[in-house]
Write the structure tokens for this entry.
Amino acid sequence: MDGYKVLIGLEMHCEISETNSKVFSSAENSYKEVPNSNIRPLDMGFPGTLPRVNKKAVEMALKASMILNCKQPEYMYFERKNYYYPDMPKNYQITQETKPIPVGIYGSLTFDYKDEPRTVRINNIHLEEDAASQDHYANFSTIDYNRAGVPLLELVTEPDLRSADEAVAFLETMRSIYQYAGISEADSRKGQIRCDVNVSIMDENLDDTDPKNWGTKVEIKNVNSFGGVRDAINYEIERQVELKETGKYDEMEQQTRRWDEDTFTTKFMRSKVDAIDYRYFVEPNIPKYKISKEWLEKIRESIPELANERKEKYMNEFGLSEYDSKVIVKDKSISDFYEDTLKLGADPKSSANWLTSVILGYLNKNEIEIKDLFLTPKMLVDLMDMVKEGKISSKQSKEVLNKVLEDKKEPKEIVKKLGVTQISDDKTIRDIVVKVLDEHPDLIEDHRKGKNTFDFFVGQVMKATRGQANPSLTADIIREEIDKR
Amino acid sequence: MMEKGIVELHEALVNKEVTSEELVKESLAKAHEVQDKCNAFVTILDDVKALEVTDDLLSGIPYGLKDNYSTKDILSTGSSNTLKDYVPFFDATSVINLKSHNAICIGKTTMDEFGMGGTGTTAHTGIIRNPWDLERQCSGSSSGSAASVAAGVFPYATGSDTGDSIRKPAAYCGIVGYKPTYGMISRYGLFPFASSLDHLGCLTRSVRDAAIVVDAMKGIDKYDMTSWDSSNMHLYESLSDNVKGKKLCYIKEICDPSNYPDASKELKEHLDNFYKTLELCKKIGMEVEEVSVDMKLLNALSSVYVVISCAEATSNMSNLTGIVFGPRSEGKNYVEMMKNYRTKGFSSLIKRRFIIGSYVLQAENKDRYFNNAQRVRRLIVDTWKDLFKKYDAVILPVGGGPAKYLDESKNKDYTNSRILEEHLQIGNFGGFPSITIPNGFVSNLPVGINITGNCYDDINVLNIAYALEGQMNYKNQIAKEVK
């Protein structure tokens, strides 16, 4: 792709998973294994059913709008997007796109890409209803209406992204925002995130801030994972560059393609001239209502600390490294776990050490999430306290933690069971130290001459106590006993 | 007995002069009789049980439901082939409300398909005839409700009104038709035609009964966001015939005979009769003034109505695919199944309206048609709201005379009285409370007068109608076959 600039815009759909009910029906908003077990008459489009807006979903959408620095509307209203498709039994979708102002317009988001801040302009973010999910088999298809009517946020960016990796970095930031703000689990494995990607290329030496210089836009529909987004963009760039190189680019029409996960290619769906006319009009069953300043203020105040703010706090207030801070905030559940240990009085640095060195490794190795662990923040704090109080050594504590994770038992129980306990009794250690020193008068001399024999003495004491002597107390006593001689 | 009004029937029940069983039996027998003559019912519920008589005025008394009300376990077709076998599993909110009053539904009444049409000739079960003259239309779309109430099957039936569908058939059948302010009665469970224009209401033989029935049907509903709390409005209790000092106006451009130089004899009589009724209004102490309205707005009425109602209808009815409910059609794939179902199921009138609706919403046409229609709708509503600043209500004649013939070729006498046929739509544009009451006869057939007031001013509108009704002899009249 040398010689070309790539312009990428995203339409990111994310289900709001944290409301109790769907966006316009009273059916529960939850992921259900049994198909078609979570539906109300409206979700099936029965005659005479009417939508009613879930205020909580609107609140969350406005929250997202604020986080993305968008302008919020004065009035809330919805519109109908009319099209026939089996995943939408009413055969129209209640959404916000054109004339009624969506929950947010003209915002921007700054995110980190390769440790550099990048800013993407947000065209709009709007609230709509999700469609049913479908599975296609050789001779038939199945439809599950559980997902029909789940609140969905659609975020539309300007074409400000310049590479597949940058697009993915943006999506990861958005996922983190949705999670931190308590809007969505944003789990693509549950189908909660879906993207449409716009890709075009242009000559590198032209000004990319002038839309006149932009190439022909190709939209790729229904990319359902971040990996898919990366692959689809990279494939599409290559395809378009190939067209340029072979002189066929000018023949390419503005078009919609779909990402084919089996062949790792994009496939032609329709050209712009065949674009669907959705015949939008304002949804008459939802009266427009004024969004009060007070309500907006309340929502603004309810925005919690997001990943970026927590990262800054960890670095500036707790003195963690940037790397560790990033690792901890990357997953909200890990960051929450961390903050919970601090609330229980843990030392920020040692708690962070435990997380980054031991616990995250364990999670990765076993491919599980922190919520699946038997270990609670309280247990980790107990363990750290035992070390601090000298009851066990830090080396022992690692062993204890592993046992806690494996045997699913409280740290105190494990300590008891293993018989690991630290000797912190002055007299016991002093007796051993005296004995060790007595056996090695020559090494005391060497020590005085500046040779490092100190660690040898510590080692001998540890050996004699099977590692149970309190290391710092042991060092102190050795120092005292040498000085006495 | 069924020729009596609600209060009289209630008293008879309470005094044990008659039982609810006897009323049901009589009502069912009468329903079958009217069915044979007029085709007023899609379904007659022969097995319906009597209900306990309580203090409630409606308890134990039979009534009819228009077939576009969703009724649990009872066939609800909207008089369309597309739902000819549809048995809902939930009741409309207004039906639940009536049930809670121990009202007894004895049948579902025939209508123009999905309320689209004003003739009563487009139902999938055939045309509906006017009980006064079987050669004539009831008009529509609440045709079966109007015919059955006028014929004395029961004291009231429900209706729905998107353009005039309660108020016009009421006039042509010589009864009362009332649609309250938009949102006073929940639309949940009413098969939609055009959501922003759809109203529920009732057809009765007296203003008092209309107040009693709407009192029972109304109420804020969490399932309808456009419904509002009217719990402090008691229509029946608020009835009063003291209307001294109330101010009415009528529109010169609609009522003045000089607008209709080639008027038929019937139209002349009808307008004459209208002005006589205005004299009655003055007699009971109301002021009546003539006002003038921009003819351009009035001329735009039908276009505005067609554009908005068809646009909303084509979207509202796209849920009818025959796949989830309704008689499923054959086809190689779901698109073909859907196409076959819709092509066969809908009457040509509805299909025509769907095409208009789609056309006016298309990106390249939307501003010219749909958006402009919305703008003109606003202008018309504002004009009427201005009138309501000065006047308690607007009073106008309904239609251009009595009911039309079913045989269209006999209707050639009906001259260009378009605006008379269309002005009731203004009540739907603004969501205004609007009531039609009978005000006499033309060619031995009933004609009506309409009173429309400002939103939430239902009590005022009802009282004006109530007082005026008291000055005439058409209250509780039962259709007598004149031919």
